[in-house]
Amino acid sequence: MPGGPTRRMALVSAVTVAGLLTGCGSVPEETAAPAGAPTTSSTSPAPSSPPATPSPTATPFPKAKNGTKLRACRDAKCEVLVSDGRTITLDARWGLAPVAVSVEDDSVTFHVVTASGMQATMSEQTPDQGGPSTINDVSFEVLAVKGKKAVIKITH
User: Fold this and answer.
1) DSSP 19
2) How many CB atoms lie within 10 A of CB 133?
3) Domain range annotation of the chain
4) How far apart are CA 66 and CA 72, in angstroms?
5) Rounded Cα gap, residues 99 and 138, in angstroms
6) How far is Cα 62 from Cα 150, in angstroms, rounded to an integer?
7) Cα gap 118→111, rounded to integer Å
8) 122-139, pLDDT tens digit by residue?
9) What confidence tens digit (pLDDT) does each residue in 64-82 have?
10) pTM summary value
11) Beta strands across the sheet bearing 138-146
12) What DSSP character marks residue 103?
């Protein structure tokens, strides 16, 4: 047969290519949806999107043990929520006049006057500064700051 092996080779090649195309996800004509109709395929799952990356969650603002009761600080032992412009009065035995508190720019500043008249400012205190600031054996520590409010801890 003249041209027999070549003709058979071409036919085998055509069948192989058709089989490869079908295996690569092409939809057979009899299952294709009409133009404009939504298409679904029972042979291949819908492409899945990668799982959503959770957005970083902000650490919740802690509750102060003594709430907003600044009088709890008279004995130099309290944890309170203060806002900008508040004043904390300590008992006279601590030798400090009322402490003015400024809260801004994610930090707290304490303005203090000692019984001897010395003025001290503990500026821009933050929760991550490595510990409290101390004057007359009274320590002032910032636990959290948000906007114009802060949770502070006073100890002796």
Assistant:
1) H
2) 16
3) 70-155
4) 7
5) 11
6) 9
7) 11
8) 999 999 998 999 999 999
9) 999 999 999 999 999 999 9
10) 0.62
11) 78-83, 149-155, 138-146, 133-135
12) E
